[in-house]
Design brief:
10 strands; Spore Coat Polysaccharide Biosynthesis Protein SpsA, Chain A; alpha/beta; 29% helix; single chain; 22% strand
């Protein structure tokens, strides 16, 4: 089973007012921090989708062994980055873990826990982490869903597709709030950096 990481880092960060990808977390740009966590996990490689502030984001990743995919349509929403990333994955990919650039608390240990849970039920179409009843990220999607996910439009993630297959998805209960902690606004960022 080949599970590849897909880090979506192309967004415009409109609510943040500056590129989230480049905010400093533990003395490195957020995109590089999350890439490090992914690379230190059991994922079979990492593809990063860039768009807004693309040159700067690419520079932040220059020393890391990642595949970079540019999404010129990033302004049309999350679905375009998801499609661009899925198209760029190696043809023998079994599943992709979709990582979001605004989740600084996601660790390689959490990533490995999600991978282990997904591997335990190889017939599942996807895995969605749950924290106290809330759906979280990163999610894992199996290759059978890639084509359908590439038909999404606008600022939509995988959730709408998952609604069609709820009984074939692993709803993974975790006690790690990292899966629901993101930083969309300056206030949310400040709360993580008191």
């Amino acid at each position: 089973m080949k599970i590849v990481g897909l880090l979506l880092a192309a967004g415009q960060s409109s609510r943040m007012g500056q590129p989230k990808q480049l905010l400093l977390w533990k003395n490195r740009p957020l995109v590089a921090h999350i890439a490090h966590e992914a690379l230190n996990s059991q994922l079979d490689g990492l593809t990063v989708v860039i768009g807004a502030a693309g040159e700067h984001v690419q520079a932040a990743l220059r020393d890391l062994p990642v595949t970079i995919v540019s999404n010129p349509a990033y302004a049309a929403g999350l679905s375009t980055s998801l499609a661009a990333g899925l198209r760029a994955l190696p043809s023998d990919t079994t599943a992709a873990m979709i990582l979001l650039v605004d989740q600084p608390l996601v660790t390689s240990r959490l990533i490995n826990d999600l991978i282990a849970a997904y591997r335990a039920i190889p017939t599942a179409l996807a895995l969605v982490p749950m924290y106290q009843g809330q759906r979280g990220n990163p999610v894992i999607v199996g290759a059978p869903l890639f084509a359908e996910l590439q038909t999404l439009q606008g600022d939509t993630g995988a959730r709408t597709v998952f609604q069609r297959y709820t009984d074939q998805i692993i709803w993974y209960q975790t006690d790690d709030p990292a899966v629901i902690t993101d930083t969309d606004t300056p206030e949310a960022w400040q709360a993580l950096n008191p």
